Amino acid sequence: MPSPRYWREVPARLRLEAGRCAACGKVDYPRRAVCSACRSRESEPLRLTCRGRVVTSTVVHVAPAELAMEAPYAVAVVETPEQARLMLQIVDCDPRDVRPGMEVELEFRRIRSEGRAGILCYGYKGVPAG
Amino acid sequence: MREVAIVGIGMTRFGELWRTSLRRLFADAALGALADAGVDRVDSIWIGNMSAGGFVDQEHLGPLLAGEIGMSGVPATRVESACASGGAALRAAWFEVASGAADLVLAAGVEKMTDGADVTSVLATAADQELEAYHGITFPGLYAMIARSHMDRFGTTEEDLSWVSVKNHRHGALNPHAQFRREVTLEQVLRSSMVAEPLRLLHCSPVSDGAAAVVLCPADRVPRAGKSRPAVRIAGSGMATASMALADRADPAHLDAVKLAAERAYAMAGVGPGQIQVAEVHDCFSIAEICCTEALGLVETGHGGRAAREGITSLGGRIPVNTSGGLKSKGHPVGATGVAQVIEIVEQLRGEAGDRQVPGAAVGLAQNMGGSGASAVVHVLRRV
Question: Across the interface, do A57 and B137 touch by the CB < 8 Å criterion?
Fold first, then answer.
C-alpha cells in the first residue's frame, strides 16, 4: 500500500473515527460526505467505543497470499454501542468459538506487514470480552 | 422505447482452458453469436469483464476485442460491475437498441482467470478494499458470513447448502458447455475441504475461463436467420445497488439489491415471480442461490434452504433454477457469467435446451450479481 493511502486512512482505521449525522443522529463508519440514512451533509466526528457484539462471522481457511500463514482466522461483522458496524478479525481465542451474539473488545493490533521494508499496517482486532 | 429481441447466442465451453487466450475466448463466443444471428457485423459492442487488468494485465478491451473480430471502427466499450459485469453489458446493449441509437448490437462477457494471477486477491477487489479486504476477508468469507446469518435466522443447515450443489451438478452434468460435467453426492459436498466456515470447496463456484455473447436488435427487425425459430424478447431489465460493505446491511442474509432489481424488471415486463417458469440465478456460492431465490420471490423468505432439498428448484420441480448447472457446475468466468445465464434462458425459451429442457417454458429470468450482493442485474425474457 503506498504510504499516502495508508496515511489518509489513519483517522478511521487507527482512531476508529466515525461520523454522527447532525440531522438524524445516524452513525456511519467511517465518516462520510452524506448521511446514509437521511442524506444530510452535516456530521461531526465521533470516536467509537472499543467494544461490540458479533453480528455474523466466519473462519477463513483459504486466505489471500499475504495472510496465508495466519489461517485459519476468524473475521466478523461487529456492532459497537453507537450502532456502527465494522468488519474485523477476532483473535486470542479458538476461531471456532466466534459466533453471532459474542461480546468482544476492540484492541489496537498489527493487521499486516507488507514484504521486506514495507509498511507495518495497524488497526483494530476484536478479542473476547471480559 | 423499442422492444428488443435476442437473435444470436454463442459461448465457449467454460473451464481451465489453458490453450485459449482472452482474445480468442471472446472471438469464439462473438463469432458464434453472429453466426447464430446470421449477420456478419454489428453497430456497437459492449464487453462485460471484471478484471482483465488484474488477471492478465490487459485493460482497454473495447478496441482490442473489436479488432479481434474484424470490427475496428465500431464503438466498443468494456463494462465493469464485478461479477455482474456481463449482466451490466447486456443492459447497456439493451439500452442502445431500445433507445433507437443502434439497430444491431453485440453484448459479450469474457474472463481469463487461470493465467497465474492471485485469483483470491483479484476477486477481493470487488469488496471494499479499505473496510473489508484490509482485514483479510475473502469472497468465500463474505458469503460465509451471509450463510451464518441465514442459518442463525431461519435454521438453514449445512445440508441445505449442500443440496444446492448436488442439484446444480446434476443439471450441469447435462450441459455440454459445463466445466464440471459430473454429479456430486451429498456426502462428497459435506466432506469437501473447508474454505470459509460454513462454506466448503463444493459450496463454491470454480475459477474458470470462458466467454459468452448475444446479438440484440429491434423486435420488429429480426434478421432472416432468426425467423425459423421462436423469437425471444427482453421483456424487462432491472439493475440496483446496495451498500458495498456487508457491515452496512441491516440484515446480511437479505440481498436488497437483488430484490430491487427484480422489482424493476418484473414491473417493466408486467409479470410477477409466480409467472417465471425457469430461472438462472447467481450461485457463486450455494448460499447465494438460497438468498437470491428468496429475494427474487421465487420461494418464500427463509425457505430457500429447503427448496433444493425438496426438489422445488430441480428440473421437474415447481420452479427449475440453474438448469445450466449454475455457476457451481457450469463454471464462473466472472465477466462472462451474466451473458451465459441469459443464453441458457434463450435456449430454454427456444426449446433448444435438450436434456435440460423445461417443457413449454415461455417466460424466464436471469439474475446476475456483483460483490457480496452490492450490484444486481435482473432480466426477464419472454418467447413471442
Answer: no
